[in-house]
Structures
1.
Amino acid sequence: MTVFIIRRLMQSILVILVMTVLVFAGVYAIGNPVEILISQDATEAERAAAIARLGLDRSLPEQYLAFLGNLVRGDLGTSFVFGEPALQLVLQRFPATMELAICAMILAIFMGVPLGLYAGLKPESIAGRTIMTGSIFGFSLPNFWQGLMLIMLFAVILQWLPAGGRGERGEFLGIESSFFSWDGISHLILPAINLALFKTSLVIRLTRASVRETINLDYVKFARAKGLRPRRVIGLHVLKNIMIPLVTIIGLEFGSVIAFAVVTETVFAWPGMGKLIIDSIFQLDRPVIVAYLIVIVCLFITINLIVDILYAILDPRVRLSDQKA
Amino acid sequence: MWKSLSAATLAAGMVLGTVAHAEDITIAVASEVTAMDPHYHNTGNNNQIVGLIYDRLLHQDSNQQLGPGLAVEWGPIADDVWEFQLREGVTFHDGSAFTAEDVVFSYERVPNVPNSPSSFATYTAGIAEIIVVDDHTIQFRTNGPYPLLPIDLSTIQIISSENPEATTEEFNAGPASIGTGPYRFVSYTPGESIVLEANPDYWGGAPQFDTVTYRPISSDAARVAALLAGDVDVISGVPTSDIETLEGNEDIVLSQGVSNRVIYLHIDSRRVYSPFVTDNDGNQIFNPFQDVRVRRAISMAIDRETIVEEVMEGIAIPAGQVLPEGFFGVSDNIEVPEYDPEGARELLAEAGYPDGFRLTIHGPNDRYINDEQIAQAIAQMLTRVGIQTEVETMPRSVYFGRATGDENGSEFSLMLVGWGSGTGEASSPLRALLHTRDDDTGLGRTNRGRYSSAAFDATLQLALNTVDDDLRQELLARATEIAMREIGLIPTHFQVNTWATRAGLRYLPRTDEYTRPTNVVIE
């Protein structure tokens, strides 16, 4: 297990290095952020001064080496736009995105698994068919449009929920979060649903397919023949076995919900990392883009690690140290 | 030429329709501020908000006309010395008194803000020396005649000298955000909100709203939805496509006002070869835009009325020069060029292009109202007179760098751009866009087409050194006439901005495009 984790960490460092090279070269190729940042009235001398201040007068390899030097000391650079440490900017917005992602994943799991299970056990029933048709909608509706429709219906027409933004934070056990105040929760509901719909559909379809596959296997038939109650057959034998693909997907999807909540965060003006990264890309704020991607890569690596460890717990046949990664 | 205004006119001008109302207001704007430090980044987004916490020596009103701010009287006492009388009895939000020391401190801080992506140093660069005569009298010695000094000083916020080491972080966190303005800093949560509260001791009278909350909502549709849902009271940047629906909604009040922003085409008119011009078979040809007849033909081929009516849905004003009428330095003798495709074809034939040529027009697709559609419309109009025109648009992060290009000029041949006159008068676009490019003086820095005319340069230079207002206005108008006659650039329209408020409120439009609670009227 230790060997496995160490090898994973080495790979991760390599991934981060390759990623930073790509981002550096990519942003460099797009253009010069000073053109967007600087006031239209500025003189040529001021423009040159701004370029020098941001370190953009040096060659690309020089800039990259300087970045690596700082990285070793844990400094990811200072935002071109905000003038604050890039990592701090990203982490400042991390809690907002996490709230949204956790809420969306919980919704997806608690709606998706039971519905998928039902559709898998009773595939020919009207309810089962309806669930499957509904999941196609969840897949195919464009996120942006779907978000606006939710706002139109629940915020503009019914006026039940706010149209966007993050609400007040409550405090509980020293942790500040939207979960602990009604205003905070009311602001969370719509964006979380918007983010969850696609994932719910995915979980439904995956659960259904796994259930259909498992239900005909010998050990399930045997359990039934033994006279076990259906509740125990499904709850223990079926559910535990379909958990392996589900955990993989949920793990990966959790990462992608955090990293790519961009559309939802934009539509609902949610002050998370997704909105920061989009603004930073528009303004070519390279330090923030790099810091964000490093955070996301680390996050994916951690999630994958947890998923692998969960495998071992769920499936006794898996031994992590044996895997050639 | 001393200016002075009675206290009554002043109060009326500053705080519009002050009513004793205890109200809160939430304003949604399209872009986030980058810092609460008033000297950190010179952008309209930041200025519209920090300008509520701080005052300037002189204030620009809704039409960018200068009026007294922290200075009550001002004027030149010699060709290169200006004297300002400061307002007495003004206190900062922390209770300390405002004196000339604060002005000196603010101007000295401006060029030295660490990490500033775009400083205000342009506006203090012309000051050679600041002389404090007494606590409420200050003189500026300038490098030569400097008629724009009052305007330039109206862009710089005056901060307190009590905290000389204040960093940008301390302004963002709050402790350093201490001004003399109508609202006080309460909180700044990046990406989420900025909250301000009324300063009851404001020298211009207590403001009408108790608290003001700014929220950045970048998506147009989401901003409109937030207003419809009642989450916010005022929004800026209403998309033209939503205006018709909102007009029919009696819970919403729309207000529109022309901005100081002209949308225009820059034409690559100096180089021998232009990168995106070829003959009809795709072979390189000499740059046809060197010939003023070809430039004029392009201007004549553009149907400005159609652009305004169809593309902008009526929400714009056709343009024949760089600022709309009513602004300082605008010429009364310039008409909006008439749409004349026949005449354009004849001019092209006369210039030696009876069969036209091939061209690509470039434009941004996320910067100005309907920018991409405008570029497409123009391309169709040019194709109709025989210039086979293709369109290429790109995000602003890529576009502006390429449009500016390097010392060899722009990467483009014909490009769609806009210019908002921060000074509210004609010298801003004239010196940046049309003067021969000169890196030493900064003149013509944004002259992407490299238009160059000795007559124009001389007239503008004369204007820039003329302190007398009437004469300067006349000279600026003359300079504009020269550049428009020689088609130094092709203006298409002036942008009109639209604000929407909930019923019961009305927004008084500003030409500088700012969205401020001081322009909201309670009805």
2.
Amino acid sequence: MAATHREASRAEIDALVASLLSSAADAVQHGGWFNSHNHSCATWQIWPDEDLSDEARFARYSDPEGMLRGWGTLVHGVLTSYGYLHD
Amino acid sequence: MIDQYGKRSGKLLSRRGVLRGAIAGVSTIAGSSAMKLWGSEQDDAYEGPLLVTLQLDGGVDVTQLCDPKVNVRGEPKINHWADAADPGQAGNILFAPIADNAQLFQEFGSDMLVINGVDAQTNSHETGRLFNWTGSNAEGRPSLSALFAAAQSPNQPLAYSVFGGTSRTAGLVGYNQFSNLAAARTLVQPYVQSWSGHPWRSTADIARAHSMVQTDISRLLAEPNLSVRQRQSLLGYTEARASRDSLQRLAELIPDEADVMRGEDVNVGGQNFRLNLKEQMQSALLVFKSGLGSAADLALGGFDSHDQHDAVSEALLTHFADAIRFFWDYAETLGIAERIVLMVGSDFGRTNYYNEGDGKDHWPISSYLIMERDAPWGNRVVGLTDELHFGSPINQETLKADRNGVVMTPTHVHKALWEYLGLETFAADRGLTLPDAERLPLFDPFVSSVT
């Protein structure tokens, strides 16, 4: 919670965690992989090696609890917030 | 040697820097204090008149376009084309018989006002551009398109789009600077992959992120001891986010990648040119069609032909004519052609002789082309130059040659355009004036300098 110079309040943290869990729960309904038909993050901008073995691919993109996608939502919300953009 | 400034003052300015580089990405320049990327609280599509300016960047040779000059015995050669041809004529308009000028003027001459003999009074690119697009050779006044956008659609998110040229806002309105449609697409569809049309994230997750942002804003607005500036900043951010839905109107109009006009690379006279005027035109016209703006500045660069002048000039004028045809065809397809005034101008003109590199250098006399569909003032030429392309004085009322008349400057042209476009009262209410200049009836269909 150090995206800005201001420490987040307890209420803010609770709201962010609620969004994270909600997003993760919704993601699970659409399968157990990070990328899907309605969610295709530009992962090649994070990891240069996209030519993976099945095991490595599973380790990187398997998302059975939806937490990867949930954190994606959280980062989206924080990085587009007024507080972050005007920090 | 024939040189207007040599005769008048013995002073010839040196060549300055040439073309600006291509604009990368998209950015917003706030002429006013508030950023206007998303505009504010404007949901209604703008359906009024539209203004496009097209800067032929670097100083176009109008003796090879709309003010043709043949060679004069005993004087240095003005144009190689005049060795073997006479000027062409389309209606009342004379043109140089090179490039695709014949087709350009035959097809569009009836919708065109040619303004010749305009003296920019400089050989400096920057000063020439400033004078030609603001009507003043001193800083502080808005470019015509900025004034128009501020008067017509100040609250639209893309009121004033800039793809090139010289833009001065004078604090009246912000402008949005594009490089191409891809940049516009990213602007209006930030959650969609431009190449596939697929979303980056699920709709539900985008909604969650938006909700987080809104919750954060509500919390901040509820904080005690907010300063006026902080509150204004927060409200501006909120309004901007709320109004961006209107940008979907543009998103829905942007064609598939295959139908987006692409720039072309041309090598002429050993120089490489990236010509993307049609792409600029397509983008500007789509912004207009979306109802999100009313004015746009376009530019076609490369006219600063100090070497190999004819090859460069002819290649660029060919592209220019082709692009003008595309512009009006595309505007017609979108159903907005009747609303558009297109103004073509440049920094200044080019010398009435070739230099040692077969190029032409800077010359203060130039021309404008004003175009409008079914314009009652079309098929006319106003303003005069002599056989060596010096500006000639014209009568203030008849516009005919008059040794006691006035030599036109960009101020005269802008004065007439302010009147024609209905900008005078708007400008006066904001304390904006042009430098002193006579009123010339440039848009009076019953007078012309050449008949």
3.
Amino acid sequence: MAVEAKMIDIIVEQLSVDKEKVVPGASFVDDLGADSLDLVELIMAMEEEFDVEIPDEEAEKIATVQNAIDFVAKIQ
Amino acid sequence: MSLEGKVALITGGSRGIGRAVCTQLASLGVLVGVNYVSNPAAAEQTLEQVKTVGGQGFTCQFNVADTEAVQKNIKAIIDQYGSIDILVNNAGITRDGLMARMKESHWDDVLDTNLKGAFNCSKAAMRPMMKKKWGRIINISSVIGFLGNGGQVNYGAAKAGLVGFTKSMARELAGRNITVNCVAPGYIVTDMTEELDQEVQDAIKMQIPLGRLGSPEDVAASVAFFVSPGGDYLTGQTLHVNGGMYMGN
């Protein structure tokens, strides 16, 4: 749960979107208006916040809020 | 002045063009970081000049070619001053020699400092700019990158490389209101050109329509142009400051 709450905060901060919009099924690009640079910033923020390294091939698979939460939960 | 409160880092700011850029930006109200690699006394002199125009600054020692040192020092600057809003990638060296006899290490040294150094510093400094949605990056290229010069295949390659680097980065960062531009000086009176023989200097002047070598201040004024509000709509551009010796684009 802690991971989920933290993840949502990061997304709100990085993408400047309303918290209500950050639902598990939301796609960063289609629903939250992220561009490629936003995605890179998001991944870098995740790396910093959770003190992990996310390789590019893993980062590419992170397309939705749920993907991001699952990824961090898995590697932590 | 709209540049009041902005923080700049000028690599190779202790001498020559870098020093003039520091002074010019400081006079516009920018807090200037004077980077140097080996000459603290020169960096302090730059800082003195900055103060004489009523500006403020600080010095910071690191080698732009040393990726780890760049990351560590730029992070420290950002932590202390909040961000770097303006980055001037000016640090440059020469290791001249005809290609047939050029050592691999001389190629590597010039590429590492003049081209990779700009990559290192830009990468380390860009995140706060992206967050603030404002940033100005100016890369100091050279007329040699456009005309070529016997004895400088390394320098010419690095300086031409900066132009492609500038254009690509300009496209990547435009969406964040970060502009990336080049200033390409011709022959400027600095320690680098003072090493040249008088005959060589005279021969150079023959190729310059304005009939003189440029001053570091001539170059600094162009950097200031890209940074000031009048330059807001320019990105990916190269401004040639060379007395007319090269007019193409």
4.
Amino acid sequence: MDITVNHVTHTYQPGTPFMRMALNDVSVAFPSGSFTSIIGHTGSGKSTLAQHLNGLLLPSTGSITAGDLTLEGGSKRKKKKINFKALREKVGYVFQYPEHQLFEETLLKDVAFGPINFGVPQDEAGRRAKACLELVHIPSAFWERSPFDLSGGQMRRVAIAGVLAVQPEVIILDEPTAGLDPRGRKEIMDLFDQLHRQQKRTIIMVTHNMSDAALYSDQVVVMNHGSLIMAGSPAEVFSRDEALQRIGLESPETMQFIRRLAEKIGTPQPTLSAFTMEDTADAVLKLLKGDAAHV
Amino acid sequence: MPNIIDVSDLSYRYQEAGSRVLDHVTLSVKQGEWLAIIGHNGSGKSTLAKCLNGLIQPEQGNVVVSGYNTKDESAIWKIRRRVGMVFQNPDNQFVGATVRDDVAFGMENHGVAREEMLQRLDEALKLVKMEAYADQEPHRLSGGQKQRVALAGIVALQPLIVILDEATSMLDPEGRRDVLETMKLLNKQRGLTVLSITHDLDEAVHADRLIVMNEGKVIRQGTPAEIFQHAELLEEIGLDLPFAVKMERLLRQRGLEMTERPLTQEGLVNALWTLRSTM
Amino acid sequence: MFNLVIGQYVPMESLVHRLDPRSKLISMFLFVIIVFLANNWLSYGLLILFCLASITASKLPFQFIYRGLRSVFFIVFLTFILNLFFTNGGLLLFSWGWLHIYLNGLIQSIFISFRILVIIVITTLLTLTTSPIEITDGLESLLHPLKRIKLPVHEFALMMSISLRFIPTLLEETEKIIKAQAARGSDFTTGSIKSRFKAVVPLLVPLFVSAFKRAEELAMAMEARGYHGDEGRTKLHRLVWNNRDTVLLLILAIMTIALILFRY
């Protein structure tokens, strides 16, 4: 399912002293099957943008098209009733620290909560819950236990399973690895990478982690003070180091390293990008051999 | 340098039937050093931290802070005044209604006289660069700012040591950077001893000394250079490696032999530059 | 979703803002009591004059006061109507079917409406000009003598200030959980009462779990920061009783006497 954002502006608490423009004329497309990372500072409007994509927030002006559904901003909206449920069934949302949303008596019941809300029959919801818990590597011995007996990392995976069980075409992730240790972070990122590659799910991830943004995405969207500054492939976005630095963002470590080395050696800045450790090591070899032009 | 904390043969478990979260841990903290404890979640490092200021009493063994045993109930408030602690969640340790009130909270508890309190309050807020926010309410602050307020509250008590219990893990990169810079300043300029419990290996490489914990045991102690020599061991227990260490290993696999094993990007760039001039 | 302005305190520089919270609290309580002494135009005039003078001295725009009053207009109106129709005596002004309005009823209704209004103006003024922490400090200090009879005055004050501090945090959290469950298809806004009630469970359980976790962590952090009750505790906030506070109490005392005299 394609999602298109057309000139969306969002104003918080309009008409009060606390009024704040959180999004300012943002236009961007998330093509079906793509993996997009939205990067930017805290308060740059990343999460506000993401919450528009499944109708948790509605545009003040502009519109959002998701599949055959359109969310209009402003006065046009009141005329028709929006079918939020149909939208949210197709666009799943994993919140930051999603483990805070667990509430059921058992893992299975919690994971089945979403599908049942969207009208999936009990037994089918149960089957999906089991499949999703397996997918996130929660051993079946835990399935009938309370989610509150699990470790933080396990709770996070159960919460994610709860979103996946709805079988959304598009999955929005808000800082999915925040607060996890390196092992937990890798498990989560591998899971979504797999969902993207094998099942062609569209993934939209809000993140502070530039390395993840570079490694996993087809498209990187950069936000600053509510405006979209740039959008493009990781290679395009992270080659504009100066523009990123101006708004206080850094390139992934791999790129920083290549640039530092090139600078030290005194060769011109390499134009191509490397985001995996292996590619970076190869690039370093070429740089050292004075082969800079082909890096 | 004298030891300010001595932990000897410390064991602890949360439930009597459960397994040991801390298993015969022995270590010491020297005055003025920056000590980092690394290990994955559940390795016992946070439990260890809570033993160091008597929030948890050892089941076995002793914890001695500048001469006071944490088992000695009459000394517990003296110990807590000397051992400051910043926790993981910035929200759940902010007690005051405003920044000033929060920084004062610790001093009020320890009975610091009001005149003295006002002076230390200003000083502490300046040190963490939060003086412009003195009258702000906590929900108007970022996570990084809240953690710096927590640090000011500790500094104002003039402690011997600050323990950071994953204090940067819930922060964004900017907040993390600000908190670490403040800590470095306190360590280098004020000679404050720092014990940092962390997953952030790029932070750990800057420590004077590292302790690696796994399943409640101290499995390695040493300088960062010594610890990261054994990359395989760290990966085995589920820890990541600093970027420079991983990169050095990949380059070695590709036939580049450097004489040293740098821990930072900068070190690696310099090592490669040296290598290139001999190529 | 939560456009509420939490804590109505408006930080400003004014005579009323500078008053000691204790004198403000005492005056407010006293005022609320003496309002019931008023029974004629003269005494109500005096009370209204006091309100207007206080608002002027606080330098707050009247619209702030009005905003506080707006929410209670309905109650005032209802009391007015009830008194208007159910108080007998005096001149019959109006009669329609079984509805009768007497002069006494009209006067009574106006008096009672004014009574409610002045009480609300004065309490609103207190919260608009005194920060929650000042109110807490003031209460703790005023209730201090009750400690002799083993009432946990300090703990009560601390509890109050921590609750106030956590209100915005918990509201933010509530909003986040509502959104997270809405994204999972939960619906709080439509359906039968029963289904709406059921939809509250996925909201309440996470909120309670998180509140307990917060409480646990906060307790640990407080202990680590040396909190052990108010024994040997010093205070950052010092309440200073100035001449203006004494003057305020004197004004209240004079008003009390005047109201008693006006009564007869």
